[in-house]
Specification:
The complex is a heterodimer of chains A (126) and B (545). With 126 residues, chain A is mainly α. In chain A, 69% of the residues lie in helices and 4% in strands. In chain A, helix 2 runs antiparallel to helix 4. Chain B is an all-alpha fold. Classes of the chains: A mainly alpha (126), B mainly alpha (545).
Chain lengths: 126, 545
């Protein structure tokens, strides 16, 4: 159908070259250096909320003002942190990973990794 | 017409009237007419498989964000969460937090990478560097399993709503209504494909969020925009002896229920990124950047909606009262409609009822198209026909599958009519299945070079079998008053949500299956997957007509 066949145009060797290139390793490092610790962080933060709700209901039930207690505020804080992490991730992607990804995509489309990584000026073939 | 006296009777029993059925039906009918017209318009552009499965990949990030919200904010979110908060207070709040935080897993780890590497289905990614046949089959089976659990939950919601809002009682009459809902949904999917389904979801999400906004402001205005006063009101009207402001009203009773709460929480937060119908929405946008944008929109819309549902839930607790809610037909799921009636009378109830029906219709359509795409693309085209099938042959099979799945869901819906289970609880089971069968394989495939076919199969089948098996032998099915089959008792697993056991087990099986297999790593395919996932080279492009 009207699916573009362009991904067939890249050879497996080009993918290997691209994968081994220093810019790709940097892209991967930047992606993981943000995504992995942040995932651990928000999961721990969420589990802390769940465990406190389960095993420290009296603490969570401590009134802060009027009928609003620690638990309600803790829950609302989960909303705030989710919105904040979303915002920080988008900023990180725009600034730190998108530029490398865009440039590499451009060069892959021009088959610059087909020439043994010559375009990068480095011989990184394994 | 014979239904009317019973409805009045039920209303008298609860001390509430439940509005005028014809108002509810006309508002719902209006929604159906508008969406049908849009579906017909959208269908004119449906030419290829990419059109049918992925709306030609021409949906913008913002539109897709709305459509994701439409897909995700099912009857569980609207009726189930509001009901759980109204009756159990704080413990119901956890659902919305789990459902929301889960989106960060999708945003950070899954959405963009999947968009870059798949064509139509989840299995496109899972089978990418594995042996195609077995992995695709496994992924298709788990897709169908998750979709059926989710469908069951939606149809159970439809059944309760029918009783409450349309004044339709009696098994036969309710079955007819469920069949009509199912037939409409099949029609949307057959005619509109993903494009039509997407627009149904966009309209529905807008209506739902607007409706919830109106109710939220209305409730808050009644309490002088004072959150503390609202909470106090809910506490004053709670069932005797329960504290709806602090944790524990539902899950704090014993060591087992506490573990159940944790199990539920884990299933919620890890389920979203493994839901096939959510993953499939990422393929409808032109690029990974649009996939990211759509998740950001979705997180904001869904988060704000859940903040509304907190107010609506406590508002229902304060203004309607937990005991009246539990006594109403539809039980806990009736909180939001009853609150609407309390606030705005027949008209607001009609609007909210129409929106709730639209919600069920749209979510069921999204599930059906996902399940049918998975069968046609993964099982029929890739496994049975070994890829030797034209795009339209595949779409033809997808359409037939959609009819079959629609028929199955009508059947399930009729069965589910009798059960008064909370919809959010049922959906949480679908989340547990998704987190157990799908998420470990998705994560390993994207981030672990060594991962093998055997690891994928052990993880998918192992996670699926353990999860569904534990549900079968849990109090959900038998052995308790609230079970589906209360008369028998074959339950030996104490937790009502199996996530605590089945999700770690699936991760472990994926790891074990990989380290004991002799399959060498396909370095070429791994390189292709990694480079495509992170750079977006070779990603499927938008279709221009």
């Amino acid at each position: 159908m009207s699916e573009t066949p362009d991904r067939r145009l890249l050879t497996p060797e080009e993918y290997r070259e691209a994968q081994a290139s220093p810019e790709f390793q940097e892209l991967k490092r930047r992606f993981r250096a943000f995504a992995f610790p942040m995932t651990v962080a928000f999961l721990v933060w969420y589990l802390l909320y769940v465990l406190l709700s389960t095993y420290a209901p009296d603490f969570m039930g401590t009134p802060v003002f009027g009928d609003v207690n620690v638990g309600i505020l803790f829950g609302l804080a989960q909303f705030v942190s989710t919105f904040a992490i979303t915002h920080v991730y988008v900023a990180h992607a725009n600034k730190r990973t998108d530029p490398i990804a865009d440039e590499m995509r451009e060069r892959l489309e021009h088959h610059e990794y087909a020439r043994g990584g010559a375009a990068t000026g480095r011989d990184v073939a394994r | 017409m014979t239904a009317v006296p019973t409805a009045v009777l039920a209303a008298e029993a609860t001390g509430e009237t439940v509005g005028t059925p014809w108002v509810n039906i006309s508002i719902f009918g209006l929604f159906v007419l508008v969406t049908l017209a849009i579906t017909f318009r959208a269908s004119r552009n449906n030419k290829s498989a990419a059109d049918y499965y992925a709306a030609g990949r021409t949906i913008t990030g913002q539109q897709n964000g709305l459509a994701i919200a439409g897909d995700y904010l099912s009857a569980a979110s609207f009726l189930g969460i509001a009901g759980a908060i109204a009756v159990y207070g704080y413990d119901g709040f956890l659902y919305s937090i789990g459902f929301l935080v889960a989106w960060l897993v999708a945003l950070l780890l899954v959405a963009e990478l999947m968009r870059n590497t798949a064509r139509y289905t989840m299995a496109d990614v899972l089978a990418f560097r594995m042996r195609q046949g077995p992995v695709r089959t496994a992924a298709a089976i788990s897709t169908l399993a998750v979709s059926l659990f989710y469908l069951l939950a939606q149809m159970a919601g439809a059944g309760g709503l029918v009783t409450l809002l349309l004044g339709v009682t009696g098994e036969a009459a309710q079955a007819v209504v469920v069949a009509i809902v199912g037939a409409l949904m099949i029609f949307y999917v057959l005619v509109g494909g993903m494009r039509g389904t997407t627009w149904v979801q966009i309209i529905k999400a807008s209506l739902l969020i607007a409706g919830a906004f109106v109710m939220t402001v209305w409730v808050l205005a009644g309490f002088g925009f004072n959150l503390s006063a609202l909470l106090g009101g809910a506490q004053a009207n709670a069932t005797a002896g329960s504290d709806v402001l602090a944790p524990g009203a539902q899950y704090g009773l014993s060591g087992t229920t506490k573990l159940d709460f944790i199990s539920l929480a884990i299933a919620l937060v890890l389920g979203t990124a493994g839901l096939p119908h959510v993953l499939m929405r990422f393929y409808t946008v032109p690029t990974a950047k649009d996939a990211r944008k759509s998740v950001v929109w979705a997180i904001w819309l869904i988060g704000i909606f859940y903040l509304f549902s907190l107010i609506i839930g406590y508002g229902a607790g304060a203004l309607v009262g937990a005991e009246s809610i539990l006594a109403a037909p539809g039980a806990v799921n009736a909180a939001a409609p009853l609150l609407a009636f309390e606030l705005g009378g027949t008209v607001l109830l009609g609007i909210i009822a129409g929106v709730a029906f639209a919600t069920i219709l749209a979510v069921v359509a999204g599930l059906t198209i996902t399940a049918s795409a998975s069968f046609a693309h993964d099982v029929y085209a890739s496994v049975i026909k070994k890829g030797q099938v034209s795009g339209n042959g595949e779409v033809h099979v997808a359409r037939i599958t959609a009819v079959v799945i629609g028929a199955i869901s009508i059947g399930l819906g009729i069965l589910a009519l009798q059960a008064g289970l909370n919809i959010a609880f049922l959906v949480a089971l679908a989340f547990a299945v998704a987190a157990s069968a799908n998420l470990p394989t998705i994560i390993y495939t994207l981030f672990w070079r060594r991962f093998t076919t055997q690891g994928a199969l052990w993880s998918i089948y192992g996670g699926l079998i353990i999860c569904v098996g534990l549900i079968i032998f849990s109090p959900v099915l038998s052995g308790a008053e609230t079970s589906l089959f209360p008369a028998v008792d074959f339950a030996w697993f104490p937790l009502r949500n199996p996530g605590l056991i089945s999700i770690p087990a699936s991760f472990l099986l994926g790891w074990l299956g990989t380290v004991v297999s002799k399959e060498p790593v396909n370095e070429m395919k791994h390189a292709e997957l990694e480079v495509r996932a992170l750079t977006g080279i070779g990603a499927e492009k938008a279709v221009h007509h």
